[in-house]
Specification:
The complex is a heterodimer of chains A (384) and B (655). With 384 residues, chain A is mainly α. Chain A has one domain. Chain A is built from 15 helices and 3 strands. Chain B has 655 residues and is of the alpha+beta class. Chain B folds into 3 domains: 31 residues, no CATH class; 220 residues, Penicillin-binding protein 2a (Domain 2); 368 residues, Beta-lactamase (3-Layer(aba) Sandwich), CATH 3.40.710.10. Helix content of chain B is 40%, strand content 21%. In chain B, a hairpin with a 6-residue loop joins strand 24 and strand 25. The radius of gyration of chain B is 37 Å and the shape is elongated. The relative contact order of chain B is 0.10. The C terminus of chain B is likely disordered. The interface between A and B is large, with 51 and 44 residues.
């Protein structure tokens, strides 16, 4: 993708970033093949998940390359219209959205379904970077602080209502990290943290104690939370804990070296739900088949990706670039932490994909666009 | 490299962000370490527990053969119709979505599309049951048989044994098997399964000896049905016959359906047991036993090879059909089989002891001869019983023992074949109790014979040193005529065999060898022929006197046994096969016992070349001569027929 050197400058690629990206994407394809193997091999190639994932990856590479065509400063000028378009698509989900597994998260475009929340994350990062890259002095004014909060709260609330608690939380962490790096005074952040904690507590309380027909809270969310806190009806807990237990068994039974590629039994026998093994629980599949060694390798690849991103942030020529990089890195990190954490019961189960590894067009394309943005910041850091 | 760059950078806040991220990655690493390394084994254990089932596979029980490999107990295949549930999954799903869910939605308007587990689970079960019960009713109408599967049984099976095929119809007959092949074999999931079932092809034959089995284990989790030998050879050799059940390893999916099956440990068929029994002789003995008195005859007959102690037939009456126990008997039927008077399950040949009556006079004869108190030519006068002048009475020394023989003068042989109580009480008293018991003990009367079923009682014959202690010395005239002591028919057979063979006491052999299953199976254990327990020292002269007297018991026209062996239509079979024997009729006066008389005929033949010892005992018969001797005569006829035919030659070559 980077051969498209229209700026007639020497192409300066971040090889560590590329290595991490490719490593994860290829790993993802292999284990999606493993996770969906037996059952789907009878289907034509174009309907097999691993092949589709390759297509998403190629499409994502194209999108990422496109994201590097222009200097991020020029791209950032489009941040507002893009942001509002994203908000529009989030609203559209409620009107024409498709319900999948209890969540109204998808917009169907005939041959493919897209998940607006994923794209909204990119748009949000651009908007925040552009907004927060104003002089630090302005950021000290509460007006800007609250405006930034408002930009966060809008998609947060819309996605929360889908409902998709996991993705909504991503907006909060990204917002917090970007404000922090941008230089929003600590007192605001303290207040924000001080306000966010009761807010989160209130949220949990609403979820737990909401009347049964309360529209914003789905019964499964309540059950999940209850079971995470070890409360609630035993039978329901067993059912809700089932997924987590099964992913723990998958991960744990991998031991040191795993059972070998395509030798995992948990997804094959359906203990790890077949609908989710190749996306939200892909890490369990990898951990079962490649063991601790494989899990550490995956963590290492993500670390390469994340710390390359931090390096990009450090070397960025301006605050916009720096904030873009921080936003992307935080986005990726939050996904990685929540997803892997949920596979080993560090976090409650929330349907949030593992960037580049999980199956899913929107997720893969958006992750690659995000990485493309990171690269963009890297490439254009010395352009003047 | 670049990580250090980050920390050198003065952007404090960026450093903080990367620090949080590093901490997060380390937390994940620690979590993974804990899950994969620290609790890896435990998780592996949970994985195995949830993905594998280990059902046990019943091994075929060993067969039991007679000495010519006629099957006495065999496995015959039972055909069961089973349903493989995993093959029906698409039908289950189809039924669920096309009918059950729609019906539910119709009855409960306003329910969401995503049904909670609590609602969906019973609906799934309902859908699965509908599919199965549909197939079941198709099967039932095709086979012309009522449906056997009900909802409760299905639910129980389906929740616990999803990975096993569900039996729909058990024990199909051959017509139904044909119907299956023709009409039902194309039905998805339906299959015919064979299961070995223990059967006794000759039904009641040798029932007591073989013993019965009961089914075990079929209901316990993962335990295939098997059998447990409860009585007879089946119980005594249960360990050999049972074999070892195999274990399968069934990989199941999250719904419990079978995905793959391996054999973890192959089943090992039980060993086959070869008996010394000759089937036709056994059948003849059983027929003979009931021919005189009827099917409720309570008695036993034992045929032994006098030369080596092999038990060739052992019959007990009344009998039962062990096949009933294989299928399972109802409590009512069991009560019938435990009738307190008939005691159908009692092996009277070994498991109960009876007073030997006059047959004990064989021992008394030897005791009197050895102690030199009896001259065989001396005439003893049997005085008439004043209360019953046609019979004698032993009234010496204040005794009052009735005789069944008429009064008059008796030498030894006459006394023997008339079975004069007075005569033998007279000389028995002279020989003394100690001497009588000593001779009896030499023949190991009143002791267990070491019979392989271990279903044996010893009977009561005190040791000689107990004379005057546990048994008063004045019992001698009673013991001399076989009262006040008890023995088993098998013990008497061993004794008669010793008389016939010149004094060798054998351990009766019933099991010849144990072989691994299949024709020409390897010999696992071999029970040697003719294991000698004891050699009785006998003066040949006395033995000759005794044997001749026993011959007279069937040959002298006045003898008690004469009539039986010389019927008007006397068969030619026994013309050249002389039988030596002794009749006996013991009176019993015990309120604890439900019989008043025990009649016997103890014998061997042929006289000039003794090969067979035959003892017949019947409770409440008329007399030994009238009831038991005819039974023995039938058995001897069967023996002669056998010896003329093929199998008898093989008897000769085997021995």
């Amino acid at each position: 993708m980077y051969e498209t050197n229209l700026n007639e400058r020497k192409l300066d690629l971040d090889w560590a970033l590329l290595l991490g990206t490719w490593g994860l994407a290829v790993t993802g394809v292999f284990f999606i093949y493993s996770a969906t193997g037996e059952g789907s091999q009878a289907q034509p190639l174009y309907r097999q998940m691993f092949f589709l994932q390759i297509i998403w990856f190629v499409a994502g590479l194209g999108a990422a390359a496109a994201a590097c065509l222009a200097d991020y400063g020029k791209l950032a000028r489009w941040s507002r219209p893009v942001y509002w378009a994203a908000i529009g698509s989030l609203v559209a989900v409620f009107v024409i959205g498709k319900v999948v597994q209890g969540g109204r998260r998808w917009i169907s475009l005939g041959f493919l379904r897209i998940q607006p929340a994923e794209f909204a994350k990119i748009a949000f990062i651009f908007l925040m970077a552009e907004f927060l890259s104003r002089p630090v002095e302005e950021l000290r004014r509460p007006r800007f602080f609250f405006a930034a909060l408002g930009y966060t709260a809008l998609p947060f609330a819309l996605i929360l209502m889908e409902p998709d608690l996991g993705s909504a939380l991503v907006f909060l962490t990204v917002c917090l990290a970007m404000m922090f790096v941008a230089g929003v005074p600590n007192r605001f952040l303290r207040r924000l943290a001080g306000g966010a904690f009761p807010l989160a507590a209130l949220l949990v309380a609403v979820v737990l104690f909401a009347p049964p027909k309360f529209a914003f809270v789905k019964s499964y969310q309540k059950a999940r939370l209850l079971s995470y806190f070890g409360l609630g009806d035993k039978k329901e807990m067993a059912a809700e804990n089932y997924q987590v237990n099964q992913s723990l068994i998958s991960v744990g039974s991998g031991g040191w070296f795993g059972k070998g590629w395509r030798q995992g039994t948990q997804h094959e026998l359906g203990f790890l739900p077949k609908k989710e093994a190749h996306n939200d629980f892909i890490f369990s599949v990898i951990a079962e088949e490649e063991g601790f060694v494989g899990s550490v390798a995956v963590l290492a690849l993500y670390s390469v990706l994340l710390f390359s991103g931090i390096k990009v942030a450090i070397q960025a020529r301006d605050r916009l670039g720096q904030l873009l990089a921080v936003g992307v890195v935080t986005l990726l990190f939050t996904h990685v932490f929540i997803n892997i954490g949920m596979n080993i019961r560090l976090m409650p189960v929330t349907g949030i994909p593992l960037p580049l590894l999980s199956y899913g067009g929107s997720s893969v394309v958006c992750s690659l666009i995000a990485i493309g943005v990171l690269h963009n910041v890297h490439i254009y850091r010395k352009s003047y | 490299m670049f990580i250090f760059d980050i920390f050198k950078h003065e952007a404090r806040r960026l450093r903080a962000v990367s620090g949080v991220m590093a901490a997060g990655m380390l937390a994940l690493l620690a979590g993974l370490w804990f899950v994969q390394i620290v609790s890896g084994k435990q998780m592996q254990g949970q994985l195995e527990k949830q993905s594998f089932r280990q059902p046990r596979v019943a091994a075929e029980r060993g067969n039991i053969f007679d000495c010519y490999t006629n099957a006495l107990v065999a496995n015959h295949p039972q055909y069961n119709l089973v349903l493989y549930l995993e093959d029906l999954r698409s039908q289950f799903t189809n039924e669920y979505y096309s009918r059950v869910v729609k019906e539910y939605a119709r009855d409960h308007p306003g329910t969401s599309a995503r049904l909670p587990y609590k609602v969906a689970n019973p609906l799934h079960l309902e859908a699965d049951w509908r599919v199965v019960s549909n197939i079941n009713s198709q099967v039932a109408s095709a086979l012309g048989q009522p449906m056997t599967l009900d909802r409760e049984r299905f639910d129980h099976f389906y929740t616990n044994y999803t990975f096993l095929p569900l039996p729909i119809v058990t024990n199909l007959n051959s017509n139904q098997v044909a119907v299956f092949a023709e009409k039902l074999s194309s039905q998805t999931g339906l299959d015919l399964e064979t299961q070995p079932v223990v059967s006794y092809p000759h039904k009641t034959t040798a029932a007591h000896l073989l013993g019965y089995v009961v089914r075990t284990g079929g209901d316990r989790k993962y335990m295939a049905p098997g059998y447990k030998g409860t009585t007879g050879i089946q119980a005594a050799f249960d360990g050999w016959l049972t074999g070892k059940p195999g274990t399968n390893l069934v990989l199941v999916n999250n719904e419990g359906y079978r995905q793959h099956e391996d054999i973890l440990a192959p089943k090992q068929a039980g060993k086959d047991i070869y008996l010394t029994i000759i089937l036709p002789l056994q059948q003849a003995a059983e027929k003979a036993l009931v021919a005189e008195v009827g099917t409720n005859a309570r008695g036993a007959a034992v045929v032994m090879d006098a030369r080596n102690g092999d038990v060739l037939a052992m019959a007990s009456s009344p009998t039962f059909d062990p096949n009933e126990f294989v299928a399972g008997v109802s409590p009512e039927r069991l009560e019938q089989l435990n009738d307190r008077k008939l005691k159908q399950q009692l092996n009277r040949a070994t498991y109960d002891a009876y007073p030997p009556g006059s047959t004990f006079k064989i021992i008394t004869t030897l005791a009197c001869l050895e102690s030199d108190v009896m001259d065989v030519n001396e005439i003893y006068h049997n005085a008439a019983n004043p209360r019953d002048p046609v019979h004698g009475l032993f009234a010496e020394q204040g005794y009052d023992i009735k005789d069944t023989a008429p009064p008059g003068d008796y030498d030894f042989e006459k006394a023997f074949y008339h079975s004069s109580n007075s005569y033998f009480s007279h000389y028995g008293l002279k020989a003394g109790l100690r001497k009588l018991l000593e001779v009896a003990k030499r023949f190991h009367l009143g002791e267990k014979t070491g019979f392989a079923t271990r279903e044996e009682v010893a009977g009561i014959v005190p040791r000689p040193d107990q004379a005057g202690k546990t048994m008063p010395l004045n019992s001698a005239p009673y013991v001399a005529i076989g009262q006040e002591i008890t023995v088993t028919p098998l013990q008497m057979t061993v004794m008669i065999a010793a008389i016939a063979n010149g004094g060798t006491i054998y351990y009766p052999r019933i099991v010849k060898e144990i072989r691994s299953s299949g024709t020409g199976g390897r010999v696992e254990t071999n029970f040697p022929e003719g294991r000698v327990r004891d050699k009785v020292v006998l003066d040949p002269q006395y033995l000759a006197i005794l044997r001749h007297a026993m011959l007279q018991d069937t040959e002298h026209p006045d003898a008690n046994g004469y009539k039986a062996f010389h019927p008007p239509d006397r068969a030619l079979e026994l013309a050249h096969f002389q039988v030596a024997g002794k009749t006996g009729t013991a009176q019993v006066n015990s309120p604890a016992l439900d019989y008043k008389r025990v009649t016997w005929f103890d014998s061997y033949g042929p006289y000039d070349d003794p090969r067979y010892a035959v003892v017949v005992m019947i409770v409440d018969g008329t007399s030994g001569g009238d009831t038991c001797a005819p039974v023995a005569e039938r058995i001897y006829k069967a023996i002669v027929t056998l010896e003329k035919g093929g199998p008898a030659k093989r008897v000769a070559s085997l021995n």
